[in-house]
Structure formats: C-alpha cells, structure tokens
Specification:
single chain, Alpha-Beta Plaits
C-alpha cells in the first residue's frame, strides 16, 4: 500500500498531560508523528494540536477513533480531504560570506522573507509559507551553506466557504 500524509487539527482541554497521552497513543501503536504544533486557542481552556502523520489508509480511521476515545479530546478534524490553509515558519541560519551576502539578500527578497539577525559570519532568515516554499528556499540556500534550522511544523485551519 502507498503511504499518505494526513493533517489533523485536534481541539483538546488545555491541561497538563494531554499532549503526552496523544503522543503516547501514536508511539504505542507504531505511528510516526512528522510534525506537531500545540498552542492555546482564543479560549484559554482549549488548545489546538496540529499533527502531521504518514501511514497507510486503513490506519487513519483507527487513529481518529483512538483520538476520539481520549477523555481530554474535544474534537478531531482530518484536514487532508478538506479545503484548508496551512503555513509553517522556519528560522534558517545561513553562512554569509562577503561574496554571498548580496545573493542571500536577493533570495530573501524573492521569497518575501526577513533577515532577523545579522552576524559577522551568518544571516538568520525568518521564512513563513507552505511546504513548497520551505522546500524551495532550503534547496536554494543549501549550496550557500545552512548552519542551523528550526522549524515550527505545519499549522492549519479550515478554509471558509466563499
């Protein structure tokens, strides 16, 4: 079978141990979590977990059923087949030798990024976008030299009907 990627938006009680139970559910059944973002919603008693995982189609139905059984889970949405908006943010520390500085700044301009830190030997770039944009900028910066990278993982919300 072919592996598929699924994005889940999970509303949970904002309480200690909830994330541990959810990640335990995945690890206990041998499911890998590709990315995971958690933050409080507009309601301080509720958090949204955006979780990305890969697997074979029969697994996803099982994942949803197991998630819905957890006490602190309020609602589980599988965004994969729906219309949604997704973004990811990354901080990329790039080697900035004098001969590459102008090129790096052009790349930052083309990708509508920001330079958020400048050092003697590096630039730190903030990038926000979808997976395609992330892959593209990383591929372009790789030959120049990436020293470090920190990524948020995907966050996503349903699109409103037009």
């Amino acid at each position: 079978m072919i592996e598929e990627k699924h994005i889940y938006s999970i509303l949970v009680d904002n309480e200690p141990g909830v994330l541990s139970r959810i990640s335990g559910l995945f690890s206990g059944r041998g499911f890998n979590i590709e990315s995971l973002c958690v933050a409080e919603t507009i309601d301080p008693l509720v958090s949204r977990i955006t979780l990305v995982t890969k697997g074979e189609p029969p697994i996803f139905e099982q994942i949803e059923k197991q998630l819905n059984k957890l006490i602190n889970v309020i609602k589980v949405h599988d965004l994969t087949e729906k219309k949604y908006v997704q973004r990811e943010m990354a901080l990329i520390k790039v080697v900035a030798k004098p001969e590459h500085r102008a090129e790096i700044l052009r790349i930052v301009d083309i990708f509508r990024c920001k330079v958020v830190d400048v050092g003697l030997e590096h630039y730190t770039i903030e990038v926000t976008g979808d997976e395609g944009k992330m892959k593209a900028i990383l591929n372009i910066l790789k030959p120049i030299g990436i020293k470090e990278i920190a990524r948020t993982g995907i966050i996503a919300l349903f699109r409103e009907p037009k």
